[in-house]
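Thread amino acids onto this structure.
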């Protein structure tokens, strides 16, 4: 099934806008917190923001968290493996999406070694999510280095807001076996909740060595307590255990499967204090520790293996086997103090400071078993000034220092004007930075032959030169929001984004900068070169685009969500073999639709469509993807049974056939599953 240019949903959006009742009622929309750290009406946010609530998550029928992001304008999602998904804004990514900040309950969860987010293995499931806010555009002024392109904040359910117990399970094709259970207890002074989740499936299709078989178990314990008048505390303890590529055939050349067979164990501890003194101010102290243990099997590969200075083997199978198990352990520590205040009647402000330490042990990444460290220190502030009843000025900035790069200053400014009830204009200028990661700046990896002699060196040469600069983004944006009534909201945005000092990966011969080539070949090795993976700052990329998002209740029992993005990208880096062209990673069009209908007597149904035009994921995955469409359908039933509530959902995913959203050799096929759940009323 193919939708020509996805023109139909755009036409539907216009028709639905015209059909929606346009009464002049002026109603405050929902609040968003992520854009500036201040609770703000969405139409008074300094940045474009998309809000996804529990109802939308259920209606979309997603099992994987990243999949819901396909319904956010400009977001691009791809599946490198069953457990490693890439979710990035506007494309602008290689295999790992390193330019989007992802927060769970206020804490950053990216992997320090590579900057990637292990979406499928994070210690939170769809069942435990209360709300997702996605800030589209640079947001470093509020959340630091990783928020170069966008910020995704996931808020989980609070123990006080759930029923005493709940349980659910799902079973379906492609080996789907899911389960979730929770119990909660509390009183007027606090509450505690314990939850367990299991998720597994047979993974991806079209794989000769069984790329699939993903399995994950998570256990979370969280609580919230009133310690004194105006003082409360929230805490979390969680562990997650994931196994991926369980049936991967590692007896073969594993060059295509090495990253798809691994274990990933993680744990986290969060602690948050809120203090609200009589003055009306608010103080927030956040403390966190997160850890991840990623282990790949010691697989072997018989390709391009040679001893430096020795003649080439007459056959690849005469070469010595090479161990490529790229395992690592990471630990992050984070502390942040935040102060909300209202110094004048028309001015609200928030300021704070934070510290984050990242530690990585990974010999394959750094060429040494020693612990590598990177520290971040930041000072941030944001002010909201209501100049007049219909005019609002938002300003903010952050100063951030990294232990391996220079301090960075990232300001942001937005002017908002309510033209009339339900009509709002927003003009904004924002900047963002991304500090070089440990591996980008000082990685020196080596693969070793059986006798311990290094035979293939891979270097991120920023360590030797110390010359990697932080990436910088600058965005100009103009937005318009139309809200004729509480349940209709149309959000339009035009923007221009420029990213300078883009850090790119290239492969070149070791010992020279004159030649750049990819892929490397036996001919290059015969000339005395070994392969080097290099990290370099390069020329800028500019993206111009238009975005639209419509959330509307068309009738009493019918609601629709539509999103659309039209973009044009230009990569100023001269074409050269070995440099990825980042313009190719930006799809020309991306769109989505979620149509939900209540049928009566407890029944409801929803239809989900998403479309992404032709694109390519960065550097190591060379496949150019054609445009693709995903089709999902859900039929649900809800009914009270005594003091309990029963939920049943039958969900079909990729009903139009296998979807290749990352590489041509890996795709998610048609899957249908049945989900049953019950919780106390």
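Threaded sequence (681 positions):
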């Amino acid at each position: 099934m193919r939708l020509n240019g996805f023109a139909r949903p755009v036409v539907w959006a216009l028709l639905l806008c015209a059909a929606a009742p346009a009464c002049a009622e002026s109603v405050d929309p929902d609040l968003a917190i992520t854009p500036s750290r201040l609770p703000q009406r969405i139409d008074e946010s300094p940045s474009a923001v998309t809000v996804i609530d529990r109802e939308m998550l259920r209606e979309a029928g997603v099992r994987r968290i990243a999949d819901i992001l396909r319904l956010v304008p400009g977001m691009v999602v791809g599946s490198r493996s069953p457990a490693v998904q890439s979710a990035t804004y506007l494309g602008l990514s290689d295999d790992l999406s390193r330019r989007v900040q992802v927060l769970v309950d206020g804490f950053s969860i990216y992997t320090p070694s590579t900057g990637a987010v292990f979406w499928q293995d994070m210690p939170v499931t769809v069942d435990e999510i209360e709300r997702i806010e996605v800030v589209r555009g640079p947001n470093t002024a509020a959340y630091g280095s990783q928020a170069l392109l966008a910020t995704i904040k996931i808020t989980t359910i609070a123990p006080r807001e759930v029923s005493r117990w709940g349980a659910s399970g799902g079973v379906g094709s492609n080996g789907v076996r899911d389960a979730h259970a929770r119990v909660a207890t509390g009183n007027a002074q606090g509450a505690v909740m314990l939850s367990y989740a299991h998720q597994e499936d047979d993974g991806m299709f079209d794989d000769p060595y069984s790329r699939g078989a993903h399995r994950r178990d998570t256990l979370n314990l969280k609580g919230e307590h009133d310690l004194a008048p105006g003082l409360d505390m929230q805490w979390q303890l969680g562990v997650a255990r994931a196994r991926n590529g369980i049936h991967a055939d590692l007896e073969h050349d594993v060059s295509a499967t090495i990253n798809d067979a691994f274990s990933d164990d993680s744990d986290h501890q969060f602690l948050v204090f809120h203090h609200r003194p009589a003055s009306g101010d608010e103080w927030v102290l956040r403390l966190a520790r997160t850890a991840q243990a990623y282990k790949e099997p010691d697989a072997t590969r018989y390709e391009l293996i040679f001893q430096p200075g020795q003649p080439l083997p007459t056959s690849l199978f005469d070469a010595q086997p090479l161990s490529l198990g790229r395992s690592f352990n990471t630990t992050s520590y984070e502390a942040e103090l935040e102060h909300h205040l209202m110094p004048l009647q028309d001015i609200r402000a928030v300021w704070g400071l934070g510290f984050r330490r990242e530690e990585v042990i990974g010999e394959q990444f750094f060429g040494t078993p020693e612990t590598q460290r990177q520290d971040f220190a930041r000072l941030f502030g944001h002010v909201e000034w209501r100049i007049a009843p219909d005019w609002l000025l938002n300003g903010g900035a952050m100063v951030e220092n990294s232990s391996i790069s220079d301090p960075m200053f990232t300001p942001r400014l937005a002017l908002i004007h309510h033209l009339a009830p339900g009509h709002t204009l927003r003009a904004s200028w924002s900047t963002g930075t991304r500090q070089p990661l440990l591996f980008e700046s000082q990685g020196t990896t080596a693969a070793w032959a059986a006798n311990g002699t290094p035979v293939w060196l891979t270097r991120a040469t920023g360590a030797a030169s110390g010359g990697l600069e932080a990436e910088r983004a600058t965005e100009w944006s103009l937005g318009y929001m139309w809200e004729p009534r509480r349940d209709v909201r149309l959000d339009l945005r035009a923007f221009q984004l420029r990213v300078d000092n883009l850090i790119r990966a290239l492969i070149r011969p070791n010992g020279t900068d004159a030649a750049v080539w990819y892929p490397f070949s036996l001919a290059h090795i015969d000339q005395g070169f070994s392969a080097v993976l290099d990290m370099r700052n390069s020329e800028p990329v500019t993206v111009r685009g238009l975005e639209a998002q419509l959330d509307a209740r068309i009738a009493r029992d019918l609601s629709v969500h539509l999103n659309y993005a039209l973009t044009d990208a230009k990569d100023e880096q001269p074409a050269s073999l070995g440099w990825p062209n980042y313009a190719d990673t930006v799809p020309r069009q991306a769109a989505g639709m979620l149509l939900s209908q209540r049928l009566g007597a407890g029944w409801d149904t929803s239809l989900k469509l998403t479309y992404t035009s032709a694109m390519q994921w960065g550097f190591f995955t060379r496949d150019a993807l054609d445009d693709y469409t995903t089709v999902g359908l859900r039929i649900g039933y809800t009914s009270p049974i005594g003091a309990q509530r029963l939920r049943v959902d039958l969900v079909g995913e990729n009903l139009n056939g296998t979807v290749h959203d990352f590489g041509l050799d890996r795709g998610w096929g048609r899957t249908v599953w049945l989900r049953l759940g019950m919780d106390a009323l």
